[in-house]
Automatic annotation (TrEMBL):
EC code: 1.2.1.41
Species whose genome carries this gene: Arthrobacter bambusae
Alphabetical list of PROSITE patterns matching this protein: PROA
Signal peptide limits: none
Protein name (database record): Gamma-glutamyl phosphate reductase
Pathway assignment: Amino-acid biosynthesis; L-proline biosynthesis; L-glutamate 5-semialdehyde from L-glutamate: step 2/2
Main location: cytoplasm
Amino acid sequence: MTEALTPDSPVITDALASGNATRVPETPELGTAPLTPGQVEAAVHSIADRSRQAARHMAQANRAWKDRALRAIGAVLREQQDSILAANAKDVESGRNNGTSVAMLDRLTLTPARIDGLVAALENLAGLPDPVGNVVRGQTLPNGLRLRQVNVPMGVVAAIYEARPNVTVDIAGLALKSGNAVILRGGSAAAHTNAALVTILRDALESVGLPADAVQSVDEFGREGANVLMRARGRVDVLIPRGGRDLIQTVVNNSSVPVIETGEGNVHIFIDESASEEMAVDILLNAKTQRPSVCNTVETLLVHSKSTVLPAVAAALRSAGVTLHVDSRIEAALSGSVDTVPADDVDWATEYMDLDLAVAMVDNLDEAVSHIRKWSTGHTEAILTNNLANAEKFIADIDSAAVIVNASTRFTDGGELGLGAEVGISTQKLHARGPMGLTELTTTKWIVQGEGQVRA
């Protein structure tokens, strides 16, 4: 158990002077003075320094050892399910009392089924190959030098996210399997749940002989702790924000630590004139209503003017409780048969994360592509078609992290695509793009072996 420290503790004072503290202050008790910015900085730097030490151990751990840790975490999640759900109930109740949106409450909520999903993801990770040491490429040069480029861990990975306790387990599992240490900032909305999960993660690591400090949290230091984390260049190797646009842009614009940007999901589906009614109804219902609060849910539907499936699709979506925000052509085509509300430019740009869908009519594939290029966030776009040429053109013309033909956009997910889990969906083009799994949490290094060669 970490020893509780007061704001004027000599350990913190020493840390300010040396930058080498070995203990971290717990959240001050009620009635005590809050920590000063300098004390928070010292505490977060101490966490990062201990993460660096833990990362060196994790980088040396073999696959069997790391897989043992993942399975230990899964076992404790099952054993402690009741206490996790009790902690989560406190966060959900607090969120409800604070007016948190239905979509955000859904992301915040854990259930027995969702905990089972986290355990299954850890099992999947344990069954995947270890990316560390994988040879990306290699050759022997004419001068006899033997070259290998191999995957190695990033080192210290930090994640800032909000109201998503599942991310605590997903990111920790991916980081550990890829030989990294992780620092988590999960936000106040999930404070009780994340505290319980971090304790479980640390205890499970210790139970198999790996350093508990491979998983740490800065939640107790609030926003100032997050700010310090963003400025901890040299102590933290990479920072991954996961959440809404405001959170992501705050991290991107204020971090001195390299950032892998995960993007909001203004996701589109285009129904071509050749798409069948049955497929269109099934896919739209799944893509919009299965879990509307997540980033791979469809937010805009584009319908070819010659398609005959619009009435059935619109009726099915309305029956499922979806509010349709439509342009004038869609409104006219439905002729009042389905309740709608008028759409404007705000709707084309909105990630609803709820049972709302923007719907527009287009006359051809080029118009659909043009609309997507204007409004997309580069996450996921799908086409429903029985025309192979149109499918191939859509694939070629759309520049998003994932392009889907005749399937739900909900498949843009690390677990669904065989990655075991995901850190997030990257919409940038540097290093990682799309669902980020194990390999995306590694970098590479060159190994050059010679026998006395010197450069001419």
